[in-house]
Amino acid sequence: MTIATRLTDLLNIKHPILLAPMAGAADGRLAATVTQAGGFGIIGGGYGEEDWLKRELDAAGDARIGVGFITWSITKNPRLLDLALERKPAAIMLSFGESAPHVERIKRAGALLICQVQSVLQAKEVAAQGADIIVAQGTEAGGHGAARATLPLVPAVVDAVGTVPVAAAGGIADGRGLAAALMLGADGVLMGTRFLASQEAAVSAEAKQRLLAADGDATIRSTLFDIVRRKEWPAPYTGRALQNEFTRRWRGREAELMHNLAREEAAYEAARQRGDLDTAVLHAGEAVDLIGEILPAAEIVARTAEEASRLIAGASNRYKVAG
Question: Which of 48, 109, 131, 209 is deepest in the core (most CB within 10 A)?
């Protein structure tokens, strides 16, 4: 089964399902697998590590993929965008920061521009700047985001940007989420946490098991991991992650953490290097409730598309409308 939308037409894909460019986890292998399954894979360039990006672009091979960046990483190091554009990706995705300075270079290289936004105002701005696709990200999403929930944000963005295709993000992990997003007026979805719990995701087996064991109540939005990693995120952005011993120790004590940062930063980095997830961050969204097993990424794409198709096709038989 297939669902054709403006998004599938524009990206020339079978299913309106995009891989979120999760920093480090959405590598070349995962992105290529999602694309080969009929979705659209996006490598997670994150804060910008040139050697990692080169390696993962090579790993993606000839797959038609995109590359995503936290926008200020390419503002600080324009070479990162050059590296990506040299490989002729189908799209560049920019999240957070100011997209306008990079639009001309991206368009001149022949890539589509995907912009992730967290508000209607941001959506209007990137639409005016030339975004080809807009991702409306709700606060349910794992990783960094702002304050608005997916359900009201998506239709508001759809209404605001007119002919620009919109993908919904935040709290979507199965065909029900895809079908719901389409009913809200979106042309598809961008999923992160569900693909984080895929066989191909570049995270540890322990991390994937923690995702299986968790539920949405086990996630929190905070600045704690940004403080201890010295990642400077401006307001209103916070990161959603699984709670662990580190967050339970320091939540509500952010000022004290900053005062003891030299000591705590060293301890955190040591824990990260040994894979200690009782201390290190594991970004995850509220949709962890919906993840019951670690599946191949291709199967996640297929199941999501099939379930959404079935729900949409059967909707008229499920409800009675009177009057």
Answer: 131
Token digits of residue 85? 């554009």
**Helix, strand, coil: what percent of the chain each, to 5?**
50, 15, 35
pLDDT surpasses 80 at 323: no
Tokens matching residue 226: 């940004």
| Domains with residue ranges and CATH for the chain | 6-201+291-311 (3.20.20.70), 205-273 (no CATH)
Task: Say what the pTM is.
Answer: 0.95
| Closest to 183 measured CA to CA, from 34, 41, 316, 22 | 316
Grouping H, G, I as helix, E, B as strand and the rest as coil, residue 157 is helix
Helix (H, G, I), strand (E, B) or coil at 208: helix
Give the integer Cα–Cα distance in Å for 323 and 317. Answer: 17
Q: Which of 36, 17, 111 is nearest to 68 (CA)?
A: 111
* Residue 214 CB contacts under 8 Å (≥ 6 apart), including other chains: 242, 284, 288
State the Cα–Cα distance between residues 29 and 56, nearest whole angstrom: 7
Q: What is the pLDDT of residues 152-173, one digit of tens each?
A: 999 999 999 999 999 999 999 9
Closest C-alpha among 174, 173, 157 to residue 165:
157
Of 151, 152, 159, 109, the closest CA to residue 134 belongs to 159
Q: Which residues contact 293 (CB under 8 A, 6 or more apart)?
A: 212
